Amino acid sequence: MKLCVFQGTFNPIHNAHLRVAEYVLERYDFDRILFIPAYNPPHKNAEPKMRKHRFKMVELAIRNNPRFEISDIEYQRKGKSYTYDTICELYKNYKIDGKVNFIIGTDAFDKIETWYKFNELKKLVKFIVFIRDEKFDKTRYNYLKDIDVDFECQTLEYLDISSTELRKRIAEHKNIDLLIPQEEKEYIIKNELYKI
Description:
alpha/beta, Rossmann fold, six-stranded parallel β-sheet, 9 helices, 17% strand
């Protein structure tokens, strides 16, 4: 199986995430994009009470694409959601063709060397790095090739919004119809999420 992982806090997942995943499917022809909501992300503060909601929102957002799948692997393990541990489990649970591919933004990739067991992780995955800024200098990552980090950069025009900005818009009752799928929006309203 050609597998690509999209791991994140997804607080909440939004259309820019989905567009990136669709683009990756189109360009690389993976068998599956596996969305993995982080149970307890080590680099972000995520409210424990939002865990079940973050998972459900991803489930709702991806349900119309048969090649998108959600995994509760980090929810089963609990504790800190270290990518290295998750990737090791995936190799045990799936018959993977080549390496696991891993979607990541430049904001996270900038800190990749600080990730838990980075030297072991870099042997297990190929990073697909998405660049948000058109003026971004890709050569800043050249040194990572010298230490055997397998990655390539992609640029994609899409309506980009941070999850922080999206939460703010939801709290202020601003129009979010173009930013998240309808079923997810209904879930957010029904459960009164992200209220100030």
